[in-house]
Amino acid sequence: MNQHSNVRIIPRAGLCETCKVREIAACSVLDKDELARLEAVSKTRTFEPGQAIFDEGEDPRFIYNLTEGTIRLVKLLPNGRRQIVGFNFPGDMMGLATHGFYTCSAEAITPIKVCQFPRQQLLDLLETFPSMKTRLLNIAADELSEAQEQMLLLGRKSPIEKVASFLYRLCQESGRTGDSENEIDLVMGRSDIADYLGLTIETVSRTFTKLRNDEVITLEGNHHVIVNDMDHLEDITEEV
Amino acid sequence: MNQHSNVRIIPRAGLCETCKVREIAACSVLDKDELARLEAVSKTRTFEPGQAIFDEGEDPRFIYNLTEGTIRLVKLLPNGRRQIVGFNFPGDMMGLATHGFYTCSAEAITPIKVCQFPRQQLLDLLETFPSMKTRLLNIAADELSEAQEQMLLLGRKSPIEKVASFLYRLCQESGRTGDSENEIDLVMGRSDIADYLGLTIETVSRTFTKLRNDEVITLEGNHHVIVNDMDHLEDITEEV
DNA sequence: CGCTCATTTGACGCATGTCAACGCGCGTGG
DNA sequence: CCACGCGCGTTGACATGCGTCAAATGAGCG
To answer: Is the C-beta atom of B199 closer than 7 angstroms to strand C?
Structure first.
């Protein structure tokens, strides 16, 4: 499963300054000197689609910052049941939430790049970076809000509300990062979407079909979605 | 709904020192001097069962620390649908997770006492309390782990697995706080349990009955549960 | 162009929700 | 002290939405 063996470890040399998530990641609050100290303990690593960055239950030796690509956070149950508890995009931190072990696995969906920090070294450094500690606290509070929203979705929404909510969130995210808020690329497959929304792939597929037939969305291939009626989509997220 | 009007505001006078959650709450890491400064901005308030401490969507002016009693964190959907995203017990912080507004309501289940801090004053103080900021970061990370576990439960577990998981967690909590880990008091009603587990009250009731008939648990009244076979209960939490 | 895997579509059954009635405990008032 | 009503929980009958299983279609890629 976990193919840690053949990952490339890229030596760092003033890379933070040119980092693609320099402006949005947790380290964005650091000054040049602090950033240099952080960089001194960090490594850049790459993973291919399907590879695990870490596995649920492992000793959480590292904390990661995703700089390129998309990953899924996965929890497993006997019987092959799977729940995706979140998708991470560039700028997101992974591996902070633990109980003495990683509480979920992190798997690359696309080719990814991460910034890897030895956990204890990062936590030690954090004690000298008050601004970054505050930043992390805010990030954690935000993630908690998102998790609560997802609990509402999983516990009380119908399949069509779930899918609409999922698409609507991606649109907002897309809008915030400067891209068109009416077009989104789904880098994850239907089965990832199903395991994120607590549905089967068949139900996800049927729901996409229904949204297409109702002309709320247009599908160009399986991974590109155009939202024709954003207001209607928003209505569907909390249908009566 | 929200009956803020008739709550009692109790003046503080060195109360932190005798606080019942002094050893477990986030403020436990503070020294005497720091505690005095924290206490200076705090108020103690009490609420009766059913009263809201704050409501979803409100301006998050305060952060709270629960010192006595039990509260539920609630999110609502049109159609009367409700999801309880968590229960809080003495020592828990409330109101940290926000997006510029409270992301859920907090309602007293039992009579409660809280310690109320003006949000910005607490955040300002936090900048001078590095140890408490670290503590809060750890607490937030823990809550995130719990939220992920709850997503797994809501998205992928069967009713009996959900109820068993719920009871099993309460037993562990009970064990950690020094009480018997085989007996628990359910302060919340069946409808709170249902809305926490993403089920209907009927299904919760039937599932309790099944666990009783299978002699996994014994019910003494509706609110006191004795676990007869903890290993069996644990097995049921992830049945194949 | 053809293979493979992902996705879609269809048929079917069951688990869980819905609706309704009943029971029980508790507080209130006669 | 008992009768009554109300809220909460339980139980039963029924319906249906979503999961399961199976087959067809389509997209991506060598």
So the answer is: yes
- In angstroms, the CA B203 to CA B209 distance is 10
A42-88 pLDDT, tens digit per residue, is: 999 999 999 999 999 999 999 999 999 999 999 999 989 999 999 99
Q: What are the residue boundaries of the structural domains of chain B, listed by start?
A: 8-152, 158-237
Give start and end residues of each alpha helix (H) in chain A: 32-40, 119-126, 130-156, 159-176, 190-197, 201-213, 230-236
How far does the CA of residue A134 sit from the closest CA of chain B (Å)?
Answer: 7
The domain made up of B8-152 has a fold known as Jelly Rolls (2.60.120)
Structure tokens given for B18:
């005798």
Tokens, residue B12? 């503080």
Write down the architecture of domain A158-237 according to CATH.
Orthogonal Bundle (1.10)
Residue B218 approaches strand D within 7 Å at CB: no
Are A104 and A71 in contact, with CB atoms under 8 Å apart? no
CB contacts under 8 A, B 132-161 vs A, are 133-134, 136-137, 140-145, 147-152, 154-157
Residues in Cβ contact with A225 at an 8 Å cutoff, skipping those fewer than 6 apart: A167, A183, A184, A185, A186, A217, A218, A219
